[in-house]
Design brief:
The protein has about 170 residues and is mainly alpha-helical. It contains 7 helices and 3 strands, in the order H-H-H-E-H-H-E-E-H-H. It has one domain: Four Helix Bundle (Hemerythrin (Met), subunit A), CATH 1.20.120. The chain has a 3-stranded mixed sheet. The protein is globular.
Amino acid sequence: MTTAVSQVMIPLAGLLLQLQDLLEELTDEQYVRPVKVLTNATLGQHTRHIIEFFLELNAGYATGQVNYDKRKRDYRIETSRACAIDSLTMVLSLLDKENKALTLTVDYSNDNEVLGSVETNYSRELVYNLEHTVHHMALLRIGVNAVSTIVLPEEFGVAISTLKHRSACVQ
């Protein structure tokens, strides 16, 4: 029987490996250069953001409590491609876990005192992180096109549902 976690792992690992391949092609200068079309964010900042969500999920798995807003921010990931590549390798090694119940802490108010919680589980958070990664990879695609001549795979930064829809339209 295929578990929910294993169903997510294949496309998720594929995305993270695509990201790792991109990082290996970029130069250090391209990785840290502010990109005007990304409101002067860098490719490194978007990469760090992706990685840190996975690291927070891993930390939250151990405690049963996930809070993406309180994740540890490691600015070495956004300034060092080598560190980001190593971090992605580590993330890939940490993801394959049994599904279990988790509590997600959320705060969507301007009042720092108001926190809410949502019951979730590891599989659901992997799905969320997959979608979150696709979103940031779409932004990375825009940034890469602005700072380099790297040709990305057609599916880089495109949701699986969009790829399936495009494929169905062609037939």
